[in-house]
Amino acid sequence: MRIDLHTHSTASDGTDSPAELVRKAADAGLDVVAITDHDTTAGWAEAEAARPAELTLIRGMEMSCVGRGVNGYPVSVHLLAYLFDPADRGFAAERERLRAERVDRLRAMAEQMAADGLPIDPDAVLAAAGPAAGRPHLARALVEAGVVPSVNAAFTDLLASDGPYYVEKADTALRRAVTMIAEAGGVSVLAHGRARSRGRLLDLQDVRDLVSHGLGGLEVDHPDHSAQDRATLRDLAGECGLLMTGSSDYHGDNKTIVLGECTTEPAQFEKLVGRATGVPVLAS
Ligand SMILES: [Zn+2]
Ligand SMILES: [Zn+2]
């Protein structure tokens, strides 16, 4: 069984439509794939309709949260949410707030760039970005306008968190997100928890505290994790009785990672499914 539990479609910042994503997952020899777009379930219906019969589909999402870093600083944390009930009132309202927040924030950044004379049209950027608007959309507009040579260059300069145009997001507090996912019948898994290239790291003590609030697991095998990172997370999962997943974090052509680059052990997958009560696994 080949199981990849973290992928993105055009419903957020991937380049494959949800239908293309499930077809490519089957073509890549995966038995199970999860669709986990940022802060939205907008890709679920299309992925479900296009699912090849031999592919098992897990409906999920990757949530942007704020946790506590070493020294107590706030850190941006991604939390995977699997098989939750999308109609759960509290969780649905929070997703709606996050979507509005994403759009407002991207507009503020684009408008400041335009005001400073950069060749950026905020309306065009927002229209192209759609509901899961994020910095990658603005980065691509900057590349197309010839302001920066690459998306990466945009992120290390104009769009950096200590750069001139950065606007803070009011993300969900990590503990609250863990609680909401559990209440919606879902299973939460901390995404790429040791990926230093993404900024300051979450305090591991914070992870221990989350277990009693319903945290389900840790993403151990991820392309951004070193062997040492994986060992650290594996130890922590063992200590806390958490699930361990492995996933590609596939984004289509936006990254060089391929589907199934990292995978989840079948026994861990079965445990995850066994804990979820929100929506069923889609299998033939
Ligand atoms: Zn992420
Ligand atoms: Zn991701």
Automatic annotation (TrEMBL):
InterPro entries attached to this UniProt entry: PHP_dom, PHP_domain, Pol/His_phosphatase_N, Pol/histidinol_Pase-like
Gene3D superfamilies reported for this sequence: 1.10.150.650, Metal-dependent hydrolases
Domain Polymerase/histidinol phosphatase N-terminal: 3-67
Pfam families: PHP
Coiled coil: none
GO molecular function: 5'-3' DNA exonuclease activity; 5'-3' RNA exonuclease activity
PANTHER family: EXONUCLEASE, POLYMERASE_HISTIDINOL PHOSPHATASE N-TERMINAL DOMAIN-CONTAINING PROTEIN
Protein name, as recorded: Phosphatase
Organism: Nocardia jinanensis
